[in-house]
Amino acid sequence: MKLNDISDNAGAKKARIRVGRGIGSGKGKTGGRGVKGQKARTGVAVKGFEGGQMPLYRRLPKRGFWNPFSKDYNEVNLGRIQEAVEAKKLDVSALVTVETLVAAGVVSKPRDGVKILGNGELKAKLTFQVAGASKSAQAAIEAAGGSVTILAAVAEATA
Residue 8 and which of 27, 37, 102, 128 are 20 to 30 A apart at CA? Predict the structure, then answer.
């Protein structure tokens, strides 16, 4: 076999039909669009139009709502924080805030703050200043000899 002998299987390539090239081509005159009307014209995109029948997206009921005052927190588990401490990305003596967690690469961006969750084990004695912490996380931090301060601005908004 040579490279110049290689070819597609018969019928693998289908030629494109060129429309609007005279009535003898079989796809001339109206170019397969039928006759007249909105859909025979160019630039028509009638998405969701069902010929005057009430469209599906209007027949279905509305559901749910978006709370404009909701907060979007970074949720960080204790195990992830311990990994950062062991990798020497977090300083044990320094205060742990959103900014230090972003600098350590534990969270990608600050958002509305950080909430500490209790999954994993924390061995280091750390001082946290965060938007929130679960009860299990607070208990684990205090058991390790650390402390948690919940920021006042966030605590007022939730109360």
Answer: 27
Q: Which helix (H) or strand (E) holds 139?
A: helix 135-143
Give the Cα separation of 95 and 22 in Å (integer).
79
E strand or H helix that includes residue 129: strand 127-130
Which residues, other chains included, contact 121 with Cβ-Cβ below 8 Å and sequence gap of 6+? Answer: 78, 79, 82, 140
Select the CATH number that applies to the domain covering 74-158 from these four: 3.90.45.10, 3.100.10.10, 3.40.50.720, 3.90.79.10: 3.100.10.10
Mind listing the pLDDT tens digit for each residue in 3-16? 999 999 999 999 99
